[in-house]
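User: I'm curious what two different proteins look like when written out as structure tokens. Can you demonstrate?

Assistant: Sure. I'll show them one after the other, since each token string lines up with its own sequence. Here's the first protein:
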Amino acid sequence: MIRIMLYDLAHRKKVRITDISRQTGLSRTTLTAINQEDAKGINFNTLDTLCRYFGCQPGDLLRYEEDTK
């Protein structure tokens, strides 16, 4: 399972989803879906924007975990 680490990165930077949305131009709806892991996928442009915003690599935003089911 792929886990999205947006919450952790936002927490470290001490920003909220609303702040990220305002500063990046990404919609709050998209960011909330990604943050709550409701998104079915993530667009490469969105991933690029988030990496640029956080100054990170895609691997810092995405993490693979074994499915325990």
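Here's a second, unrelated protein for contrast:
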Amino acid sequence: VLRIAEAIKPASPGVCLGLARARAQIGQKAQAIEDLRRAVGSGRVDAAVIEADPWLAPLRDEAGYRELVERLKTRVVE
């Protein structure tokens, strides 16, 4: 279902976040982090959402995940 949604709306934050969650759960961590980067690029997903999401828990020890969260925490809102 997520792949169909991605084909229809590839830049949708909800689709990207869903893909990140699914890929994190099946161990595709590098791709999950890339999906997460696309999701936060919209500005609709913040560090609090990511850190509280149990489906993203497998990514928490990954350097890319930690860098992304830290960058979001220090991002200046305009």
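A detail about the second structure: Residues 3 and 46 are 23 Å apart (CA to CA).
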